[in-house]
From TrEMBL:
Residues 42-111, 113-237 form the PiggyBac transposable element-derived protein domain. It comes from the Eukaryota. InterPro entries: PGBD. This is PiggyBac transposable element-derived protein domain-containing protein. It comes from Loxostege sticticalis.
Amino acid sequence: MSDTEDENDENWKKVFYPHTPPIESFDDRPLRPSQVYPIRSSPLAYFSSFFSQEVINHILEQTNLYASQNRQKDWEDVTIAEMKAFLGMLVLMGVHPLPNVDLYWSSDPLFRLYKIRPMISLMNTAFKNSANNTASQSIDECMIKFKGRSTLKQYMPKKPVKRGFKVWARCDSQTGYLFEFEIYTGKKENESETGLGAAVVKNLCKELIDENLENVHVAFDNFFASTELLQDLYQQKKTFNKKG
């Protein structure tokens, strides 16, 4: 500290101790497994060392108890075999991730976007990494002009671009910067317009919800809005505005 400082200020100084405090010796043992497995042990054996039968039984009991307490209609208690099968499916779903849980049960022999899905994911990641989420965003549909042949091509007579690929987009409200997009692949069987709009909003806002980004206003028109959607979003303590 300088000499011009107040004399009442504290000053730092070095203090030299005449000896070094003794340090107790310890056995520096490397990390080793407490249980030795045969060299040809299956992956299930290693998994079971962490996810024991006791853990599975606990999950099973709590699952059935929850259903019983909530009086689930037509509920049948889950068995140990079913719980193990469910856990196995979760592991496989982690090994082979898909953009939507419904796709794991889809009977469609050909996922329409399977060839460009990796490209879509890479582009969405680049969009989100290149700019911070703004406070005012909007979700809407847009058209990519295309006159060729494709089962994905849509016809929208009221749009400036009447034929092409329909895209759902989440953008910055002021600049139009694109944060995330999804290509519309067609209406699913027995799917209502209300269900479609809600699914679009939830999918495109998943990042905002997962990262607890509060004070982000996302506007969308009456095509996407529904009482169920707004109640669901309100429960997640997010700020969503309905426009129009």
